[in-house]
């Protein structure tokens, strides 16, 4: 279901998003400082242990490397959280969704080839321009694209389709991957839910947050072994004169 917020509701929501982003930025600063210090000292410790040639030093070095990996994982979660909080503050201007998709596919192409995935764009040549934050929308494409590649470990096809339907601009992202169970579909937009080891659980919640900040909707159709289709609908708008 697509709906439009009243002006007062939109202003209230934007104020909440701004406050959340400010709090998240402060939290990130407070976490990053000690995290950087920990990482620096672990690196120095690893260098000292690497110079020793004892069984004890090798065991300690292995533990240090595990701690370094945990620090990197924490940094990734922190970055994903910042993306999530800032996703509700789009800086929109009228532009071509097709150009945003095409630019992303130029980046995705080599990575998809490594995964033996064929990318097939089907972009409506007459697609109207839309009020869009291209940088945020690239995050949408990147999250959906990376998820699709991970769902096709043995290769497959990945389609990006744009069209106009029911007074909306529609983007479909369709893969031939492993698909998802009903239980996963029900929870996939919940913050910090992930079926992948090491995942932040914020990729799809960020996608939904960005789409809703553009007054749009996102739906998913998926079955195990049958691939996945994400359908994004964004309202058509008249460009101000």
Radius of gyration: 21 Å
Which structural class do the helices and strands define?
A: alpha+beta
How much helix, percentage-wise, in residues?
Answer: 40-55%
Low-confidence stretches: 1-6
- Physical arrangement of strands within the biggest beta sheet: 2-4-5-7-6
Please indicate the percent range of residues in DSSP E strands (runs of 2 or more): 15-25%
CATH superfamily (homologous) name of the largest domain: Histidine kinase-like ATPase, C-terminal domain
Number of helices: 6
By DSSP, the count of extended strands is: 7
CATH class of the largest domain: Alpha Beta
The domain count comes to 2
**CATH architecture annotation of the largest domain:** 2-Layer Sandwich
Topology:
Elements: H1 7-50, H2 55-86, E1 93-95, H3 97-114, E2 117-123, E3 130-132, H4 134-150, E4 156-165, E5 168-175, H5 182-187, H6 203-213, E6 217-222, E7 228-235
Parallel strand pairs: 2-4
Antiparallel strand pairs: 1-3, 4-5, 5-7, 6-7
Helix pairs in contact: 1-2, 2-6, 3-4, 4-6
């Amino acid at each position: 279901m697509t709906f439009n917020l009243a002006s007062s509701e939109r202003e209230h929501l934007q104020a909440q998003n701004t406050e959340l982003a400010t709090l998240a930025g402060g939290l990130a600063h407070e976490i990053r400082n000690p995290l950087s210090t920990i990482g620096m000292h672990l690196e120095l410790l690893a260098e000292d242990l690497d110079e020793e040639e004892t069984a004890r030093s090798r065991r300690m070095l292995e533990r240090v490397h595990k701690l370094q990996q945990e620090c990197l994982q924490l940094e990734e979660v922190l970055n994903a959280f910042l993306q999530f909080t800032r996703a509700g503050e789009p800086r929109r201007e009228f532009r071509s969704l097709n150009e945003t998709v095409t630019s992303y596919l130029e980046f995705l192409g080599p990575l998809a080839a490594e995964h033996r995935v064929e990318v097939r764009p089907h972009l409506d040549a007459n697609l109207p321009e839309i009020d869009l934050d291209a940088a945020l929308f690239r995050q949408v494409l990147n999250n959906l694209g990376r998820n699709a590649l991970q769902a096709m470990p043995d290769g497959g096809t990945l389609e990006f389709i744009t069209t106009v339907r029911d007074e909306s601009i529609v983007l479909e992202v369709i893969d031939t991957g492993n698909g998802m169970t009903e239980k996963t579909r029900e929870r996939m937009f919940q913050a910090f839910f992930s079926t992948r080891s090491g995942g932040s659980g914020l990729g799809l919640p960020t996608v939904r947050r960005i789409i809703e900040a553009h007054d749009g909707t996102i739906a998913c159709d998926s079955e195990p072994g049958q691939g996945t289709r994400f359908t994004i609908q964004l309202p058509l708008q008249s460009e101000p004169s």
